Task: structure prediction
Amino acid sequence: MSTPTLKIENLHVAIEGKEIVKGFNLEINGGEIHAVMGPNGTGKSTLASALMGHPKYEITEGTVTFEGQDLLEMEVDERARAGLFLAMQYPSEISGVTNADFLRTAINARREEGDEIPLMKFIKTLDKKMDTLDMGEEFAQRYLNEGFSGGEKKRNEILQLMMLEPKLAILDEIDSGLDIDALKVVAKGVNEMRSPNFGCLIITHYQRMLNYIKPDKVHVMMQGRIVKSGGPELAERLEAEGYDGLKKELGIEDETVNQEA
Amino acid sequence: MATEIQGTKYDVNYITDFSKKRNEPEWFTDIRKKALQLSETLPLPQPEKTRIVDWNFTEFEHDVAGRTLTSASELPEHVSRLVGQDEESGNLLVLQNGQAAYAALSEELKSKGVIFTDIATALREHGDLVKKYYFTEAADYDTDRLTALHAALVNSGIFLYVPKNVEVSVPLQTLFWQENPNAGLISHSIIVADNGSSVTYVENYLSEKAEGRAVANVIAEIYVGDNARVQFGAVDNLSKDVTAYVNRRGYVGRNGQLEWAIGQMNDGNTLSENYTALVGEASVTDTKAVSIGNGSQKQNFTNRIHHFGKHSESDMLIHGVQRQQANAIFNGITKIEHGASKSDGEQTQRVLMLSSDARGDANPILLIDEDDVVAGHAASVGRIDPVQLYYLMSRGISKKEAERLVIHGFLAPVVSQLPIEGVKEQLVEVIEGKVK
Ligand SMILES: Nc1ncnc2c1ncn2[C@@H]1O[C@H](COP(=O)(O)OP(=O)(O)OP(=O)(O)O)[C@@H](O)[C@H]1O
Ligand SMILES: [Mg+2]
Result:
């Protein structure tokens, strides 16, 4: 068996001294799509941010390897260049920097000096991907995320995903705030990326998203860790019964990170 | 506390000889002598929140050799790239170590009566015209020790005169290029746009990166006549061991318009005042300036607009970046005099600090003695947002590159609006060099 792309073991994450993620375990292999679901405030975004290396989050325990390398030892940009990508729930806005300049800088950061992507090739690729995502061409010259609507920001995250072609992508609520047509468009973008060399972790609240991007595994997160894993049928069960059935089954009263299991 | 008075070692005999050597008119020599006396008693300027008493304004070599170029193509590449590419006419002055090294002015402009020459030549050939504008309306030499030292020791500069109703469509440019690391560049620029005329003028200050003890004491006087228009661009790029005093002053007549586009990219300590007097009715000025502080550099920038004329309008947009341990104070002063009714003065100053050791301060000041006016100010000082850096880095961009993008982005709203294309291009390049 080959090494998994991403291997998370007993991960604990704290923010401002408060432990949010408490013993999280997961393995994702190339070609696999995993979904993580769970009520609000159970640590899903915290997990995603900690994996990417957000400066505010502190790893207090556990290990994470990415293609066999210690991910937690790497700087944020090194993680990205190694092939990790996070589509953020709340992307930043950067005034004065055009989307196109930003993307080109990001692509060239992966290439040797002197081997920068030819401008024409870049423009052609960008045009094509923007077309797939139904983005007007003016978005190339707009300042990065500045004044973008919620849905436009989400599309722009997927545009970056498609341009940067990572080995593993974490999509944090990429479906929230999207209308049904946009959801299909975004799903089309992600599905275009599917290959044996691409793994994906989708954080979502809605089964609907998983109708368009079929997951191999579904995990439910409560109290800062995975409390149940299964196949796509688990998501359908949650859609039908909400979290109450599962909480009863597991004997959980307070699912938030404030409560010890 | 008694602070030691910085005097100059150059005395009245030296100055008289220097003036004689240059064949200067008597009135000019007289100003030198009077100013030298004043420089012994007048205090240094006292810029808000910046201590300049230990800055070197007086230790330098005053009369250094220059060289002559027969063609602009003899300029080394890093200097010649500053010369505007867009205009074929090549109206250009190069002053090397303060001395006239190269001069070109098209026949067309000459035939229209445009004068564009170094100040020494102008004093010999157009003395009366220079006298009309040298330290008269726009500037005084008895303001403080630095203005007095300037008038006593001026050794460089240019004179640009555009006659009535002449519209100059190509930009004129001066390159002040300092090769001697211990030189004092005491440079006086006079730009006169007579009534109904228009001109675009750009000046560059460049010094070689070398260890030394140098000074730049720069005064520019810009006269904008009635119904005239001047676009004044400057890119200051003096190296670390040059202490810079830069005082640019505009005087705008009725319906006149003065647009400033300024890149303050010095690497050494800099004291800068940019002043515009809106004297005529319906006179207009627009100031756009960007700066980057590096290393342990200290800078103080004052942008001052003074409204006298009715219906006069001013707009000021200043963006500054402070990196490493740099420290800069930005003072924006809009003063509207009684009688300047229906005037409008707006100012915005923004400072971005890249490190926790960098310091920046923006002081907006509105002084209004007239009821019937509109005035406004905005100022902000902030540190770079770590979450923005994280976002950029999460796409594989290194921290350094991410900071570079944020700096460009921060300066872009000013740079993109600069009215002079050549200045815009140069600035983008200088900024690039500074943040690399
Ligand atoms: N800066 C912070 N300071 C204090 N608590 C924080 C901070 N950031 C996050 N938290 C807390 O951590 C918990 C988990 O937050 P997180 O964003 O990971 O939840 P989530 O599972 O992604 O929720 P949602 O589904 O609403 O996006 C929440 O209770 C949240 O309030
Ligand atoms: Mg979340």
Chain A is about 35% helix and 25% strand. The longest strand of chain A covers residues 18-28. Chain A has a mean pLDDT of 93. The pocket of adenosine-5'-triphosphate (ligand 1) is lined by residues A 15-16, 18, 20, 38, 40-46, 89, 257 (CB under 6 Å).
